[in-house]
Write a structure and sequence with these properties.
- The chain is built from 16 helices and 19 strands.
- It is of the alpha/beta class.
- Strands 7-8-10-9-13-17-14-15 form an 8-stranded mixed sheet, sandwiched between helices. Strands 1-6-5-2-4-3 form a 6-stranded mixed sheet, covered by helices on one side. A 3-stranded mixed sheet has the order 11-12-16.
- 37% of the residues lie in helices and 19% in strands.
- A hairpin with a 7-residue loop joins strand 3 and strand 4.
- The structure holds ligand BES and zinc ion (ZN) (2 copies).
- One zinc ion (ZN) binds next to loops.
- One of its GO terms (molecular function) is manganese ion binding.
- Belongs to the peptidase M17 family.
- It holds the Pfam family Peptidase_M17.
C-alpha cells in the first residue's frame, strides 16, 4: 500500500475523497474549504438527508477540485467518537472502496479528529481499518466472479507534519497486512495448508525479516521426546512440524518473550470424533499459529526493542489404525505423563510440548494463543477472547493494549481446585479432559501446568479467530484475531516496561 501525505489544497490523483461527517462540523479545520469544493451544495445535501449517523456512507460528486467524488462517512457526534468506532467506520469505508473499484483514495484527516483522536491516530486507524475492511480471500474457483481488486494508495490530506502522519499510517498498514495474511492462513484448507506448508511459510517470513529459524521435523521431535505432540500426530500421514523463529532485539537474547501457537491444521477430534456439524471449519484450528505468524510479521517490520521467540506446534488430528486413543498414557517432553481421556482435547497436548521447548530456550515470559475450546464460545460468545494468567500485572499490560487494538479480551479464573482436577488420574500425572463444566479453564489450565512460575498468559481464540458472517472490519472467515494485540504487546514490553 502506497501512503502519501499532502496538504489539503495540493494537486492529487485520488479517485475519491473520504470525509468524516460529524454533528459538530464547526470544529473541523477547513470545513469552509470543503463547502467551497462542493460549490456551496454541502448545506443542501445535508438538508436533503445526507446522514451524519455513525457508519452511514454516502457518495456525491465533488463539484470543484481535482478529486471527482466524495465518500462521506457519518461519524455521529465527533466529540464522542472512540478509536474503535473510527477503525470500524474505516473498515466499512474500505469495503465500499472495493465495491466501487477504487484504487486511489484520499482522506480528509481533520474531519475525523477530536479531543481523543489526533491526526496520527486517524492516519493509523484509517490505514488499518480500510485495509482490513477491503480484505478478500482469493478463492479456488476456476471462474471466479470476484475481480481481483485492491486499494493501492491512500493519500492523507492534512496540515500536520507529514513524517508523523506517514509513520502512523505505515504502522496501521503493517498491522492490517499482517492481520490479512493471518486470515488467509486460517481460510486455507487443510489439504493445502499442511504442517509442512505452514513451516515453509514461516521459513519465507523468516528470510524476509532475518529471523533465526529452526524447523523441526518428525525425527527431531522424536529425539526431543515430545510425546504429546507425537501422540496427536500419530494417526496422520502428514509429518508434524515444530516451528521456531527468533527475533533478536539484543545480541544476548537471554530472556525472550515466547509466543506459542496452536497449529492444528485440521481437527477431526480423533477417536473422540467430532459430530458432522462440528467438524466443518476445523481447518481453522491453526488460528493461534496464524496469530503468532502475523505478530511476527509486524515485529519484523516494526522492530520492537524486545527479544521474541515464536514456537508453533503443528500437526493435524486424524483417525487411523495408528491414531492415539482414549485411555492411552503418554509422556510429554517435560517428563510429565498424561492420561488421555479425550483425543479431541489435542490442542493443550501440542501446546504442552511447545511451551516446554520455549522454556528450554530460556523464555522468561510466555503467551500462548490457541483455538482451544468450544467452552470459551459458550462462556463469552464469538466476539471475546478468553484469557487465563498466573501473573496479574503481566496480564494487565496485555489488557491495556487490547483496549487500544479494539480486541476484546476477558479473563477467567484458574483456581487451585481446577488444577487439582487436571492432576487427578489413577495412572498419570495429569489428565487431558477433566470435564465439560467450565472447560475453557481446563484447556488453558492444562497448558499452565507446563509453564510453571514463568509469567504466562493464555488466550483462547476459538470464538474470535473465525467470523460466521461479514463484519465491519472484514468478510466472514478468518479474522486474524490477536495479531495486532500480540504485536502491540511486544512493542509495549520493549518500551522499557
Ligand atoms: N479445536 C477445538 C476447539 C474449537 C471448537 C475451536 C470450536 C473452534 C471452534 C478443540 O480442539 C476441541 O475440540 N476442544 C474440545 C475440548 C473438550 C474435548 C474438552 C471442546 O471444546 O469441545
Ligand atoms: Zn479438538
Ligand atoms: Zn482443536
Amino acid at each position: 500500500m502506497e501512503i502519501n501525505v499532502l496538504k489539503p489544497t495540493e494537486q492529487n490523483e485520488a479517485e475519491i475523497l473520504i470525509v468524516g461527517l460529524s454533528r459538530h462540523p464547526d470544529n473541523a479545520d477547513g470545513w469552509k474549504g470543503l463547502e467551497k469544493r462542493f460549490d456551496g451544495r454541502l448545506a443542501d445535501w445535508i438538508k436533503g438527508g445526507l446522514s451524519f449517523d455513525l457508519n452511514s456512507l454516502s457518495i456525491y460528486p465533488t463539484l470543484k477540485g481535482d478529486i471527482p467524488r466524495v465518500l462521506f462517512v457519518g461519524i455521529g457526534d465527533r466529540k464522542k467518537l472512540t478509536e474503535d468506532e473510527l477503525r470500524r467506520s474505516f473498515g466499512i469505508a474500505g469495503k465500499q472502496l472495493v465495491k466501487e473499484k477504487i484504487r486511489h483514495a484520499a482522506i480528509y484527516t481533520a474531519s475525523f479528529e477530536n479531543g481523543e483522536v489526533n491526526g496520527e491516530q486517524v492516519a493509523h486507524l484509517a490505514a488499518e481499518g480500510i485495509q482490513m475492511g477491503a480484505y478478500r480471500f482469493a478463492d479456488y474457483k476456476t471462474n471466479s466472479n470476484e475481480v481481483d481488486h485492491r486499494v493501492e494508495s491512500l493519500s492523507f490530506l492534512t496540515e500536520q507534519p507529514a513524517d508523523a502522519i506517514r509513520q502512523a499510517a505505515f504502522v496501521g498498514t503493517v498491522h492490517a497486512e499482517a492481520v490479512n495474511e493471518a486470515r488467509t492462513l486460517v481460510n486455507m484448507p487443510a489439504n493445502i495448508l499442511t504442517p509442512t506448508a505452514m513451516a515453509e511459510y514461516a521459513q519465507e517470513l523468516s528470510e524476509a525479516y532475518g529471523f533465526e529459524t529452526d524447523i523441526l521435523g518428525r525425527s527431531e521431535i522424536e529425539e526431543l521426546g515430545m510425546g504429546a505432540l507425537l501422540a496427536v500426530n500419530q494417526g496422520s500421514v502428514e509429518e508434524p512440524r515444530l516451528i521456531v523463529m527468533k527475533y533478536k532485539a539484543t545480541d544476548s537474547f537471554e530472556a525472550p518473550l515466547a509466543l506459542v501457537g496452536k497449529g492444528i491444521t485440521f481437527d477431526t477430534g480423533g477417536y473422540s470424533l467430532k459430530p458432522k456439524d462440528g467438524i466443518v471449519g476445523m481447518k481453522g484450528d491453526m488460528g493461534g499459529a496464524a496469530a503468532v505468524l502475523g505478530a511476527m510479521r509486524v515485529i519484523g517490520e516494526l522492530k520492537p526493542d524486545k527479544d521474541v521467540v515464536a514456537v508453533i506446534a503443528s500437526t493435524d488430528n486424524m483417525v487411523s489404525g495408528n491414531a492415539f486413543k482414549p485411555d492411552d498414557v503418554i509422556t510429554s517432553m517435560s517428563g510429565k505423563t498424561i492420561e488421555i481421556l479425550n483425543t479431541d482435547a489435542e490442542g493443550r497436548l501440542v501446546l504442552a510440548d511447545a511451551v516446554t521447548y520455549a522454556k528450554q530456550l530460556g523464555a522468561s515470559q510466555v503467551v500462548d494463543v490457541a483455538t482451544l475450546t468450544g467452552g470459551v464460545i459458550v462462556a463469552l460468545g464469538k466476539d471475546k477472547t478468553g484469557a487465563l494468567t498466573n501473573d496479574e500485572a503481566f496480564y494487565g499490560k496485555l489488557l491495556d493494549v487490547s483496549k487500544k487494538t479494539g480486541e476484546f479480551v476477558w479473563q477467567l479464573p484458574l483456581t487451585e481446585s481446577d488444577k487439582k482436577r487436571l492432576r487427578k488420574s489413577d495412572v498419570a500425572d495429569l489428565n487431558n479432559s477433566p470435564g465439560r463444566d467450565g472447560h475453557m479453564i481446563f484447556g488453558g489450565g492444562f497448558v499452565g501446568e507446563f509453564v510453571g512460575d514463568t509469567p504466562w498468559i493464555h488466550l483462547d481464540i476459538a470464538g474470535t479467530s473465525h467470523a460466521d458472517a461479514a463484519h465491519d472490519l472484514g468478510p466472514a472467515g478468518g479474522t486474524g484475531a490477536m495479531v495486532r494485540t500480540l504485536a502491540s504487546f511486544v512493542e509495549k514490553l520493549g518500551n522499557k516496561e
